[in-house]
Structures are given as structure tokens and as C-alpha cells.
Design brief:
The protein is α/β, with parallel strands linked by helices and about 425 residues long. Helix content is about 45%, strand content about 15%. The chain is built from 20 helices and 11 strands. The chain has helices spanning about 1-15, 40-55, 70-80, 95-100, 110-120, 120-125, 150-155, 165-180, 195-200, 220-235, 240-245, 250-255, 270-275, 275-280, 310-320, 325-330, 340-345, 355-365, 385-400, 405-420; strands at about 30-35, 60-65, 85-90, 130, 130-135, 135-140, 145-150, 185, 260-265, 280-285, 300-305. Helix 2 links the parallel strand 1 (about 30-35) and strand 2. The radius of gyration is 22 Å and the shape is globular. It starts with a helix and ends with a helix. Residues about 1-25 have low confidence and may be disordered.
């Protein structure tokens, strides 16, 4: 999933380059992306060349920055008065910059009805902050359960035993370890925790509807989190699942240490490149879900910086980056999905050969329109602080033996101080 985010950030960087970083050259658009170079250099160079050919008075300056540095670098550029014109951001990051009034509200330039006719409704919703569209949706992804057929079979399981719900997954993790002595799954529950995603799919809200009060210390939330902490404490999850970052999620799988990983199908290419033997035994299943049946949408966006000196041309470039054909071309380079309705109807997403990549693409395309944002708290400008507080509370349970209810009560208290200060 991170590769997808990086691609989106890359395109945004190019757009934002236009007027802000070059006060003396209003014909240059600065565009930032995140960790899309060098893998997608050819794509972006071609994209820029085509745009400049149709707009000979405009030059695009593309800057690719590290994904993990995106928030700090953009904050620093805003503070210094030289931000990009167009920036590729994970939709998860938009609330922080929209709250700073740093992003242009796009419906002041494009009618809301027009945007709804172009983009998928769930993708457009991910780019909305306080009922205002603050970015254009770009490439998308959802989750899949990637598993090693050979290891599953050796443990005495069949494809029909692959879990489809979180309840089934917790049972499977115990049974697999009991049969083999090995771990079935690597999944981050501490640092960069996926537990909020699980709670959302199980219908348990972490915050109230106006994001002014935390709710994840309810009896239902405590019970579910306790079940996962029991898995950790009883040795059914690797110790790294509590302390490693999300960037490490694929490593245990491609090394053969675990039989499954729950992440984006975009990682299939990395598995194929780094561990062809593992890849030859790999298959995928739909995302694991809770009682609601809902699964997470991962969305990249392209935003227009409000201080751009040439908003009209910067917006034109952003629309060019996210148009049907360019999104379709980009999606053919990785297992990602377009955010436009027309591109999603292309035969590329409805038919194909029998390869694993095609299976992942067709499955994702079928499921993606129903994907949604399960972590509603990401709509808060201080989402990153809230996230860290939650993650540290989970780590305190696993590493410090703090009781689950006590740890969650403390985290809820800290969240409420932040949520009440709006």
C-alpha cells in the first residue's frame, strides 16, 4: 500500500511546483510526489512532456520526496513561504493541511456535480474535509489477504479454510501455530496499528460523529482489542507485530516466516521481485472484514496549494494528471486502481488472463467501489498525534502489561483533551 501512496505523492509534487517555489517564474508549476522515483520516472517524464507540448508556455518541475517526510517537508515549505503548486498526498494527510487553510477548495473552480460525475463517490469522499473538496482523487487501493498456498497446505488446511472475517482469522492464527509451531500472520497491532481498521469493520466507532469525543474504551472495543492482545501475549503473533512500523509488513511474508499477510495487492510485485519462490506459491483472497462487511479504502490525492501563483494552470495540470487516460496508463504499471468512473469501466479491470496479478486486479476492481474509510478519526487535523497515542497504548499493554481497559481509558482521556480543543 505504501508504494501506492508514494505514487500519488509524486504526482502532487509536480503540480505544486508551479508558482510558489519560483516567485519570479509564474510559468513554472512545481509538482511534488512521494517516493515514486526512480520506479516511475519514465511514466512521469512522458506525462510532463505531453502536458508541456500542449501548454508550451508552461514548465513542470517535478520533485519526488520521501514518503515518511511528506508532512514535515510540506509544513516546512508552507512556513517558509515556498510550497509547491501541486502536491500528491495520501488522503489520510489532507485534514492536517486543510485545517491550516493551505489547500484550495476545488469546488470554487469546478462544480461539485461535475466532480461527482467524474470520480468514484468513495474516492471523492476521502478527499473531503468539513464538507469541502480539498483535493482530486488519484490512484486507489484496497486490502487483500495474501497467503502462501504451500505453507497452508502443509499445515493441513485447504483454500476453503482461508478466513474471511476477523473472528475466523483469530481462530485460524491459533490453530495454525498449534499445528506447525510457526506464525500464520504478520500484522501491525502496535506501531502503525491496524486495530482501528478492525474496530471500524466490526462496527465499533473510535470517535463520535462530530469527532469531539473518543469512544474506543467501550466494553465492545475493550473485548475485541483484548482478544488481539491475548494472541500476542500467548505467542500467536510475532513479537515484531507490536514494535515494527507498517513499512515492514511484507518482509516476514516474503522471507517465508509467516503464511499470510493482510495488506494491499500492490505488494505482489515486490514479492515477485524479491522472493520468486514465495511468489510462485502465493495466492490472494478478499479482505478480511468484521460484522459490517466493510473494508478499508486507501486513497491517494492531488491537491492544489492555496498560495500557488498560477492556480488556473496548476489546477489544469492536476486535472490532467488525474484524467481517465493518464490514470489508466499509470494503473497498468502497478496493481493500483483509478479513481475515475470511466477508467474503472475499462476492460483492463474486468477481464484478463489467469495470472495472479490479473486475479488481484479483477478482485480489487470488483471490491473497490464498496471500500470506505473505516478510521474516521483521520478527519481530525491532529490525526497523527491521535494515532501515536493509540499505538502507544497498545504497546503499553503488550510490553508493559498494562491492563487493556486501563490503557484504553488513558488513551481516550488523552484523545478527549485534543478533540475538545478545536
Amino acid at each position: 500500500m505504501k508504494n501506492i501512496v508514494l505514487i500519488l505523492l509524486l504526482i502532487t509534487s509536480l503540480i505544486s511546483f508551479h508558482g510558489c517555489n519560483n516567485p519570479n517564474d509564474e510559468n513554472t508549476i512545481e509538482f511534488w510526489t512521494l517516493q515514486l522515483s526512480p520506479v516511475f520516472d519514465d511514466y512521469f517524464h512522458s506525462l510532463i512532456k505531453e502536458y508541456e507540448a500542449h501548454n508550451p508556455d508552461i514548465k513542470i518541475r517535478w520533485i519526488d520526496i520521501p514518503y515518511d517526510a511528506a508532512i514535515q517537508k510540506l509544513l516546512a515549505s508552507l512556513a517558509a513561504g515556498n510550497p509547491p503548486d501541486v502536491v500528491n498526498l495520501s488522503a489520510d494527510f489532507l485534514a492536517k493541511f486543510a485545517a491550516l487553510n493551505a489547500l484550495e477548495v476545488l469546488t470554487t473552480h469546478i462544480p461539485a456535480d461535475s466532480l461527482r460525475q467524474i470520480y468514484l463517490s468513495n474516492a471523492l469522499e476521502a478527499c473531503t474535509f468539513r464538507n469541502q473538496t480539498v483535493a482530486l482523487p488519484w490512484y486507489l487501493n484496497t486490502y487483500a489477504l495474501i497467503y502462501n498456498k504451500k505453507l497452508i497446505t502443509q499445515a493441513g488446511f485447504s483454500p476453503s479454510d482461508i478466513p474471511s472475517t476477523f473472528s475466523e482469522l483469530t481462530e485460524f492464527l491459533r490453530e495454525y501455530k498449534n499445528r506447525t509451531g510457526n506464525y500464520a500472520l504478520f500484522w501491525n497491532i502496535g506501531k502503525d496499528s491496524y486495530l482501528p481498521m478492525m474496530l471500524g469493520s466490526e462496527g465499533i466507532k473510535m470517535v463520535n460523529s462530530d469527532i469531539t469525543r473518543a469512544l474506543f474504551n467501550s466494553p465492545e472495543a475493550v473485548s475485541l482489542i483484548n482478544s488481539w492482545m491475548d494472541l500476542y501475549k500467548q505467542g500467536f503473533l510475532p513479537s515484531e507485530s507490536l514494535i515494527n512500523t507498517g513499512a515492514s509488513i511484507i518482509e516476514p511474508y516474503q522471507s517465508g516466516r509467516v503464511a499470510m499477510v493482510f495488506t494491499g495487492p500492490v505488494f505482489l510485485k515486490r514479492i515477485e521481485d524479491n522472493a520468486p519462490g514465495i511468489y510462485s506459491s502465493t495466492d490472494i483472497a478478499p479482505p478480511v472484514v468484521g460484522v459490517t462487511g466493510k473494508h478499508e479504502l486507501a486513497a491517494m490525492s492531488v491537491a492544489l496549494i492555496k498560495k500557488s501563483r498560477n492556480k488556473k494552470q496548476a489546477l489544469d495540470f492536476a486535472l490532467f494528471v488525474t484524467n481517465n487516460q493518464n490514470q489508466l496508463n499509470f494503473c497498468k504499471l502497478a496493481t493500483i486502481f483509478p479513481s475515475t468512473q470511466e477508467a474503472m469501466l475499462d476492460p483492463y479491470f474486468t477481464s484478463g488472463d489467469s495470472t495472479l496479478e490479473t486475479k488481484a486486479r479483477l478482485m480489487g476492481a470488483r471490491l473497490l467501489p464498496k471500500a470506505t474509510r473505516l478510521r474516521y478519526y483521520l478527519q481530525h487535523p491532529k490525526f497523527d498525534i491521535l494515532r501515536d497515542i493509540f499505538d502507544e497504548s497498545i504497546q503499553s499493554i503488550g510490553l508493559g502489561n498494562v491492563p487493556v481497559k486501563k490503557a484504553l481509558d488513558l488513551a481516550v482521556h488523552e484523545w478527549n483533551i485534543i478533540l475538545g480543543d478545536q
